[in-house]
Amino acid sequence: MDRGDVMAILEVKNLKTYFDINNTLYPAVDDISFSLEKGETLAIIGESGSGKSVTALSIMGLVNEPGKIIQGEIIFESKDLLQLKERELQNIRGNKISMIYQDPMMTLNPFNKVGDQIEEALLIHKKADKKTSKKAAIGLIKAVGISEAENRYSHFPNQFSGGMRQRLMIAMAIACNPQILIADEPTTALDVTIQSEILELIKDLKHKNNMSIILNTHDLGVVAEMADSVIVMYCGKIMEKSSIKNIFDNPLNPYTISLMNCIPRIDDRKKKLKSIEGYVPHPTDYGIGCRFFDRCDKVMEICKLEMPELIEKNPDHFVRCFLYT
After folding, report:
1. In percent, how much of the chain has pLDDT > 90?
2. Architecture of the domain defined by 8-96+176-324
3. Strand ranges of the sheet holding 310-314, from the earlier edge strand across to the other edge
């Protein structure tokens, strides 16, 4: 995407979200900055514990204790969301910025009919009456590919399959036609066929509604299919960010390269599937140096002693690694 032709709809500047553990602050998101353009799909990739979900929750204003945002700005419609009162945030959350969560059963109320749950955003944000909101909810159920929408409107979440529940979550998220949709690992628990259907649905709705999307995932296949640009995160830090083409054609950071090497390839079926040695450290175990040094096959002594800066190595291609400084 040519960033010179469009304006940023969202800007995250020097965001730090830390967790208070025994009166000591530990970083979950550590001084990250990025922008999201109108109509862009930005993928944030990384293993579990990289900070993807905390970034999403920070944007939504849903970080709960012991987590807290200690620094940064999140600019939307010329306002810093971090400076707004909860009532002002509620007017944006679910209305102009909406989110699809990893597990629909953790979000859908098992005791409420799905139609009522989809209607809720319309009743709150659009001030629609019951008749109008019911008609809109049935239309949304149809729009996300669930048949017999009029009948299914009165069903409860446990009467739907996992893939259908994820579709219902999408219906709830797009009810108010948001400008930004945050999808946090939206296909993690689904089989490959259903995953593909959900991704196609999100892509179709993006184009129909002219939405911008932040897509959190650890699946590089999903990234290749959906994204315009990519941020690679590890232990709360941005390790690399650029266009989808640059990330796949010319990955720079050893962590990004390691992720790429883990992709199974149809022409290498005889070779053993690669994995990254070691584990993502807990925030309480972060050292002073690069957080990937103990798993990196390019490690140098300086990596253990200092955190490298995020630099622009090539035009619109940023990397955090001493190999390039």
Report:
1. 78
2. 3-Layer(aba) Sandwich (3.40)
3. 97-100, 180-184, 212-217, 41-45, 229-234, 237-243, 317-320, 310-314
